Amino acid sequence: MRIVIVAHGLRSGGGISVGQNIIAAIGRLAPHNRYLVTIPASLGYEQVCAVLPHHEVSSFLHGGNLVRRYFYETQRLPKLVRQFNPDVALCLGNVALQGLKIPQALLLHNPYYVYPSAHYGRSLLFRERILVAAQRQQFARDLKRIRLLLCQTNAMATRVRKTYDYQGPIHVCPNAVSKFTLDYPKHDESSLPDSLTRISNKIRLFCLTTYYSHKNLEAIVDLFDKNRDTLSQHAVVLTIDTTIDYRAKKLMKSVRKLGLDGSIVNIGPVPQSALSTYFKHCNALFMPTLLESFSGTYLEAMHFRLPIITSDFDFTRTVCGDAAIYFDPMNRGSMVNAILTLDQSSEELVARGQVRLNELFQGWDDVGSEIIEALGGIA
């Protein structure tokens, strides 16, 4: 087959992991196919695509410019696809190819498309809300031109059908523990990383995330500000980049202003090669998120035997099941109780997580194999 893989929109957070792992899995499993792959520039996709024996790459430099992206997707990209003459397209970035009469499979992993605005978070800007509304309208149009929709969970598939009255075929395509995280050579994990030394005597709660409004990180500041004595033995480890969003910088400024430096520590973005070190030197994964499609972080926590404390929503329960302590992310009392429950149930949660990971979730090669089969079915 001749396959177009559209991944240039996957350039942050979990989207990078999804894009790179799927491309790598397809390359390992179906090297005989020919591929045209669109990728975001300078984020590691070039090395991943290099394993595809027969491939062409179109690298897109976004730079935050929506006008540039519009012209790329409406002018440059259709021309490239027509020249390649594919049998099928795999669109990994929530948006279908426009103006092209080829069979398309679309992976939806942007939860803003199917959840109400109450899940968006308090720091979402007005212009971002306008953008979400436009994206939802575009997705409704895309549902009429694609042949197959890929969703990451059954919960997401149910919400798509309810929100858009979609009656077409849906294939559930879950996340997996990142093969790149597992394949990196092990760091020296016996000693505490320098970035955690100032909280070495505390119970460390790992919040592995990029800054987004829906991650609800402001609630962490409120939580530790209003419960200083109760949570004096606990600390949260953040991994946000304060240089790419002024709201992230504002968040950490409020941490310093309130004197919470000993309770909330930001170590910045963590490369996949170092993730295992931080998982093994923290005591729990703490995710007060309001919105997810399928965070692979939950699976990574299970793999590295870390108990999970997270928000109580359908998107968390469909992944974590009985392997997590749940709380209401809008209620500080509920969050405090969940954190304090950790000591009594951590070993049991780890055991449940191991069972759940082994029985319910696949590796990326399994996911890739199902995608290849699905593409063959619509080509």
Explain this structure.
This protein is α/β, with parallel strands linked by helices and 379 residues long. Helices cover 42% and strands 15% of the residues. It contains 13 helices and 13 strands. The protein has helices at 13-29, 45-49, 66-84, 126-142, 154-164, 179-183, 218-226, 246-257, 275-280, 296-303, 314-320, 332-360, 364-378, and strands at residues 2-6, 34-40, 55-60, 88-91, 104-108, 148-151, 170-172, 203-207, 234-238, 264-266, 284-287, 308-311, 325-327. The strands form two sheets. It has a seven-stranded parallel sheet with strand order 3-2-1-4-5-6-7, with helices on both faces. Strands 10-9-8-11-12-13 form a six-stranded parallel sheet, with helices on both faces. Helix 4 (126-142) links the parallel strand 5 (104-108) and strand 6. Helix 1 (13-29) packs across helix 13 and helix 10 (296-303) packs across helix 12. The longest helix is centred in the last third of the chain and has 29 residues, at 332-360. It is globular, with a radius of gyration of 21 Å. The mean pLDDT is 92.
